[in-house]
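Tutorial handout. Part one gives the primary structure; part two gives the three-dimensional structure as tokens.
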Amino acid sequence: MWPYETTSDSKRLVASLGGLIFGFDTAVISGTTEHLKAYFQLDDARLGWAVGMALLGTIVGALTAGKPADRFGRKPVLFVIGILYVVGALGSALSHDILVLEIFRFLGGLGVGAASVCAPIYTAEIAPPRVRGRLVGLVQFNIVLGILLAYLSNTIVRMIVTDPTLDWRWMFGVMAVPAAIFLLLLFTVPETPRWMMAHGQEEKGRAVVAKLTNTPEEAQQQIDEIDASLAAAAKLAAEGKDVPFFTKGHMKVILLAFAIAMFNQMSGINAILYYAPVVMERAGASTDAAFMMSVAVGFMNLVATMTALTVIDKLGRRQLMIIGSIGYLISLGFLSGLMFYYENVVGHFNSTSSVLVLVGLLVFIAAHAFGQGSVIWVFISEIFPNRIRGRGQSLGSMTHWSFAWLTSTFFPPIVGTLGGGVAFGIFFVFMIGQLIWVLRVMPETKGVPLEEMEAKLGLTDASVVKR
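Part two.
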């Protein structure tokens, strides 16, 4: 009898909760924007800045989390992330000054950005090979589930707390509960065996592997895998330490990563996730109806993501991007035309326009989840050569969060000044560019071994050849 019981279920719970809080924090702001605007007497530009502060924190967190995770371990950094979640949630809920609110939103964003780096690493390294794919996919699933739960939580809080000076505080504060549970659960899970074995803690690492596996054979398989990965990492470090990133030979994959990350956010996805109730109220829905409609948007996001994850390795990345791009153009063109019509021809919105806008948003979110949402991080992780893959991931993440900040910050003033038709029209134009890019530039990476990707993409690296 193998002497240890597997604790995979508890690891799965922690990884899932981390992804869920990530998604929750991303979308919870959507229910608070109008009351923040009224409470702090903000114009559209200042509202956009307040919302965007969390994304600035996300950029900083994503850029700075990797080195501490490598030096001090994955688990200590996850503790810091959990603390940032709790502090950010409670501080935002208790703020009486807009600058204080922005500071706490920035701290929460630091946690989100750091989690986008550390949570996948922890999940991949803690999981036995037989369940790794399911756990990594489960984190992505729970990010989307967290977005849906944020919409649902906002709706419930609005029903219970009828004072508009308090309901936004509760919307922020609720997130402290799953964040605190996340912190408590971290006491029950170990450091990853890969990190321990890479830092001279061989016996501790082997003991953790034993607890994570069901049989001696499975434990040995994981230990062999860790040894092989550490040897490969040492070789890559030796090969890559003198390899510059921004070279002519790397420019093709750099531009591919930049383009897909830029197009991801210039679709307007984060602006819509953050301002969904506001968009539907502007379109003629009552406030209560707008919150319920946002729940429908979150549910569609979840369903489309689940569907895409089942077919991405069958249809391929490029095919999903083509389908998603067409869906973007249909939905954004419809929404832009609808906004123009009711803003400039009819002169006002009504219940009919609110339903039509909901239909457009549901098509949009389905197109995003099925295309860009499911492809971006898989594609970026596949296209870079081994020697620069880490830096390539960082570039993609930084580009993604930077454009997320841009669209989320400037969406309110553009809508307020030029109207929703112009705002959605801008996103529509960018998605024309994405479809052209997918059809003419984007390569298919499905089924290509990572070791063969460089040859498939026709990359050259003079700095490597000369050596």
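Part three, for discussion. The longest helix spans residues 129-160. DSSP finds 22 helices and no strands in the chain.
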